[in-house]
Design a protein that fits this description.
elongated; mainly alpha
Length: 260
């Protein structure tokens, strides 16, 4: 009888183990099927082809991260061909090219941005800087004046106009714009730079007047230069020569009192 009970117990235990194993096997089979289905979905999503726009935007961002700015600019142009203007990226690239003194590519970028946003101050500043750096002083002046039409108290634009006129030897206009800049709220460093440019412009304009035998006008510019640098030897010599020519002119006319 004990042997019979043991046999029955073993049979029941075997049935239970088989049942549990079958359920577990079915559970893992279903789980495996679920995982396979999920994996297939993920592959399906990852293999979904990008549109032309998405492809160029992805390449653009990758090139920007790698600092391959020339290739990034090319991707922006490809987007342009798709009638998509990424103004923010054009401006960002334009600024990078300007910092690297690549004025041609800088202008190429911001000009596209300005077609979409003609009054974008940042784009206008970059364009003005690229024109100035590239020696296109006429466009630099016009662009800075456009900034001033939008922001009348913009000190950077006033200083840059003065500098553009100075570089093309338009000293009289450089004097005017330097004085306008000095009337604004400049930093000490900016004041020093503008005063130095103003002094040189006054000195050079005085020399032009003296060379044209307009000694009284030359005298005025040299005196103004000496107001900035009182002990400057060059300005003193130029002023003395003006006085000499003015005095000689009076003597030639026998106006001895004025000549004296």
């Amino acid at each position: 009888r004990p042997i019979m009970v043991s046999g029955i117990f073993i049979v029941i235990l075997s049935i239970l183990i088989y049942s549990m194993s079958d359920k577990e096997a079915n559970h893992w089979k279903r789980a495996g099927t679920d995982r396979i289905s999920l994996s297939e979905k993920e592959v399906s999503v990852s293999n979904n082809p990008l549109t032309e726009t998405e492809k160029h935007i992805k390449l653009l961002n990758n090139y920007m991260i790698c600092k391959d700015y020339i290739s990034a600019r090319k991707e922006l142009h490809k987007l342009l061909d798709l009638n998509i203007i990424k103004s923010d990226k054009f401006i960002e690239l334009g600024e990078i090219f300007l910092q690297n003194k690549d004025y041609k590519n800088s202008l190429d970028c911001v000009e596209h941005a300005l077609k979409k946003e003609p009054s974008n101050i940042k784009a206008l500043r970059i364009a003005a800087g690229a024109y100035l750096g590239g020696g296109n002083y006429k466009n630099a002046i016009e662009t800075n004046k456009k900034i001033l039409s939008l922001q009348p108290s913009d000190r950077e634009s006033s200083m840059n106009i003065a500098l553009a006129y100075y570089r093309q030897k338009g000293y009289k206009f450089s004097i005017t714009w330097s004085e306008k800049a000095l009337a604004l709220n400049l930093t000490e460093g900016e004041k020093k730079a503008v005063n130095s440019m103003l002094f040189d412009s006054l000195l050079n304009q005085g020399r032009l007047m003296a060379a044209d035998k307009k000694y009284r006008e030359g005298e005025k510019y040299f005196l103004e230069a000496l107001n900035i640098k009182k002990n400057n030897i060059s300005a003193r010599k130029e002023l003395a020569l003006c006085y000499l020519h003015i005095g000689t002119g009076y003597l030639d006319k026998k106006n001895y009192k004025e000549g004296k």
